[in-house]
Structure formats: structure tokens, C-alpha cells
Specification:
eight-stranded mixed beta sheet, about 15% strand, Class II aldolase/adducin family protein, Aldolase_II/adducin_N, Aldolase_class_II_sugar_metab, Aldolase_II/adducin_N_sf
Length: about 250
């Protein structure tokens, strides 16, 4: 990493007998993958999700992922693979991961507080930004409490799935990356939190489209929640939405 030639290749098969699939983690992965698909958020085999779990022999933990060529809608427990985080070598399972897995691993490497990453090619997000809007705004109380940090927008010319270098410049200050012409990537301390943040994000994008459409028809001005209010909501996010996470800290 960081200019040092890694000792392993991405997707190199290096089975580790100390690493095995946890039925609970594997089951949760498939359950939430199918929940995302049931909401209509999955397109073909693109997009993905990773879950980090601790392991005594891997300082940064290990992560569960789906292999390339299988969608979140289709994935089953027997399809999953486990990789390390620094290099992306396959510790359990036999199939290669997607190119986007290096983005997910880099996020986990840089954000030890994050244990789940969800990346989706969301139709409405891509369409809204392609229509000329620079960013979406918040209209709801739930978005600020759940997301807790402002979204970071990337221009279409930057693809952090293929080149992860820019991630280190912004990842500490966001829980959501908006990728023009591409979709979004959402971070969570738990699988549940990442899923909830994904749901509130797609709802907020939908609200933007509805509000902007209605205001264009009736000549009114949208009533946004200010950035200052969103920041204040973020500081109370755990107390309002996740008091259990406070108890664990």
C-alpha cells in the first residue's frame, strides 16, 4: 500500500484454514442483499455490498463479498467469498470479486469505524444529477439523523472503483459518496445502519424529484432543510436513531 509493492495480487486464491464462513454473517448478507433487490435498487450484476467482521489473525478484519457475475438479487450463501482488506486475496471461496471491491476495501481500510459498505447504481440518483442538478437537498427530518455527515459528490470523470487514490482525501468527512453517472456508495457501522442509510438516501432523492416537479408546476420555491440544521441533526443522530450504538461505544 501507499507505494509499497503488495505481497499478494487482488483475487489471488490463498485459502486460509483459520478463516471460515459464519452462518449468521452469511445469512445476514443474503437477507439484506435480497431486501435491497426487493426495493428495486439492484440493476443486473453491478453494485455490491461488503461486511467486515473481526478476526484474531487479521488486524483490519476480513470481509464478506459477492463474486463478480452474480447480482445482489441472485446471490446465495454458497456464492459468497471472504477476502482480506489490504490486498483483496481470497481467503475463503473460489470466485473473483468485482472491480468495485477494491473501493469497498479501501473504505474499510481508511475507516475502522465502518463495517458495511453498500454500492448501488441507483436509477433516480443518476437521472436527477443528469438532469442538471448539482446535488440533492434534504426535506425530511430522518435524513440528517441517519446520515450524520454531508454527502460527498464526485464528478463523472472520477471513478473510485478503478482508482481508489482519491478516497483518502474525503472519506473521513462523509458517510455517503454520490457518483455522477454511476450511483452511490453508503457507509455504516453495522449492516443495519448501512441499509437504513441507503433507504433514507433513495427516499430523499425521490422527494427531490417530486418536490422539484411540483414546484416547477405551481411556481413555488422548495423548502429545504438548511445545511446548518442538517449538521446539528447529525450530532444528535445516535441519540435519536441508534442509542444502542452509544451503549456499545
Amino acid at each position: 500500500m501507499d507505494g509499497i509493492t503488495p505481497p499478494y495480487r487482488v483475487n489471488e486464491l490463498t485459502p486460509d484454514p483459520r478463516v471460515s464462513f459464519d452462518p449468521k454473517v452469511s445469512g445476514d448478507y443474503v437477507k439484506y442483499a435480497h431486501r435491497l433487490a426487493a426495493r428495486g435498487l439492484v440493476n443486473s450484476s453491478v453494485g455490491g455490498m461488503v461486511i467486515r467482521v473481526p478476526h484474531p489473525d487479521y488486524e483490519q478484519g476480513i470481509c464478506y463479498a459477492k463474486p463478480q457475475g452474480i447480482s445482489l438479487e441472485e446471490v446465495e450463501v454458497e456464492d459468497l467469498v471472504i477476502t482480506d482488506i489490504p490486498y483483496g486475496r481470497i481467503l475463503a471461496g473460489e470466485r473473483a470479486t468485482t472491480v468495485g471491491h477494491q473501493m469497498n476495501r479501501e473504505i474499510l481500510r481508511l475507516r475502522p469505524d465502518v463495517n458495511c459498505v453498500i454500492h448501488l447504481h441507483h436509477d433516480e440518483t443518476i437521472a436527477f444529477l443528469a438532469a442538471g442538478y448539482e446535488e440533492f437537498r434534504s426535506f425530511s427530518l430522518t435524513y440528517g439523523f441517519l446520515m450524520q455527515k454531508p454527502a460527498h459528490y464526485l464528478p463523472a470523470s472520477i471513478n473510485v472503483e478503478e482508482d481508489v487514490a482519491p478516497i483518502k482525501t474525503f472519506i473521513q468527512d462523509t458517510n455517503c459518496i454520490i457518483m455522477r453517472r454511476h450511483g452511490f456508495t453508503v457507509l455504516g457501522r453495522t449492516l443495519s445502519e448501512a441499509y437504513h442509510r441507503t433507504c433514507v438516501l433513495v427516499s430523499e432523492v425521490k422527494r427531490n424529484i417530486i418536490v422539484e416537479t411540483l414546484c416547477a408546476v405551481n411556481g413555488k420555491t422548495p423548502e429545504y432543510i438548511s445545511d446548518e440544521d442538517l449538521a446539528k441533526m447529525g450530532t444528535y443522530g445516535d441519540k435519536v436513531m441508534y442509542p444502542e450504538l452509544i451503549k456499545r461505544a
